[in-house]
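During the first year of the project, the team set up a workflow for recording each protein of interest as an amino acid sequence followed immediately by a discrete structure-token representation. This format lets reviewers and collaborators read both layers of information side by side without switching files. As required by the reporting guidelines, we include two representative entries from the current panel. The first entry is reproduced here exactly as it appears in our internal archive.
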Amino acid sequence: MTHGDKSRLVLPAGETALIKEAADWALSFRYDQPGEVERQAFERWRASSPAHGAAWARVQSVFQTFEQVPAEIGKGTLQALNRQQGRRRSMQLLAAMLVAAPAGWLAWRQVPAWSADIATATGEQKSMALPDGSRLVLNTASAVDVAFTASERRLRLRAGEILIETQPDPTRTDRPFLVDTPCGVVQALGTRFSVRKLDGDTCRVAVFEHAVALKPLIGQSRILQAGEQADFGPLQIEESRPVEAGQALWENGMLLARDMRLGDVIAELARHRRGVLRCDPAVAELRVTGAISLKDTDAALRLLASNLPLRIELRTPYWVTVAPRG
């Protein structure tokens, strides 16, 4: 990148070639049914150097972008490219996006690793004290910016999930405590609460003590009291519902399941595990009750398999399927 033009990322020729290879692998896994030989070949390719792994991560970030934009804009975009343009043309377009996309756009998509003030990797959690004495806990794969000024205390949730325990403003100026999200602003009213960015333009707020005010980007505000949670987007707030027992136990590395769908349990475990962890639809509706480790997902999967009619298909440590037994 030259000092005179910071709007574009200019990659060396070798990195460009790797990006194109990664794009081809991504489209293959996305739209084909690769066999074991092809999967092993991919693992060898990805593990051959750190640059190969970085190229693969960058391609995945673009796919995630299409999955997270509003449905009317992004739904089916990659599928349409593949269907209408053909595999080779789709690979070229995807590679071009990765090689020549605006640097700011790519940085926004890759915030957890690149530009957030505070971030956690997949499977990592972090707890810290904020400048005002409030406590901030980041869940897996989360990213936050901290912007405390003389007039306000503000966090910006860029990805993932956070838990906050606010303290009175030590400056005695009653600066508001605010959390910016893509959906709107959450204002603490002397409280303990969590904020999670879900797929698409939806966020979830759960209040464990006192209250918070939800303020969508456009739409009516609402107060959530202790024991309530609600999903909200830029335009509206959904109906509130009770906070589930043990909902904040992720802070201690545990998932408390109470008659929970196995598919939902596996989705939560997948947030804490590198690679692909999927649940076969044939067993997704099985019900799970119990305390499940989020810190040791291998142990969690073994526990599920020992108590339910399941088998764990381990193609590689990074490609795991929970399937019916037998």
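The second entry, processed by the same pipeline in the following quarter, appears below.
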Amino acid sequence: MRIPENDVFYLPVQSIEREALRCKALVQELLTFSRDRKPGTAPEEPVAVVESALRLIETQSRIRNVELRKEFSKGLPLFEVDSTQIQQVLINLCSNAMDAMPQGGRLTVSVNQKDSFIEIRVSDTGSGISPEIRQKSLSRSLRPKR
């Protein structure tokens, strides 16, 4: 606040302040996300729930050269949801998608209404799950319980 606009340090200090505020918001999101609480649902705005989860992975996407696209419908109704569970699923899906794009790519998250449901879709330009891993996963799930 005391540095004049024509000072050579003005822009770097402004940048540091902006990033510090961004970090503060990110830490607040992490604290909220990690807080131990009882499961339960509440009416939530679908886009707000998804945005909250995406804030936690945005930096990782930039570092990994992954373009994060958001395609959100406007005017969606509230929906009854456990927002922490939705956020956890989204973070896992997005992290897995970025792992499948070691050279970078595009990760798209969309939120739309389908009839009386809210659809949250995650897609990426990664290579997908290799046939070997798919086969291992399939054989595990088909193994009889003892």
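For the second entry, the following points were noted during internal review. Helices lie at 10-34, 46-55, 58-63, 83-99, 131-142. The mean pLDDT is 84. Both points are flagged for discussion at the upcoming steering committee meeting.
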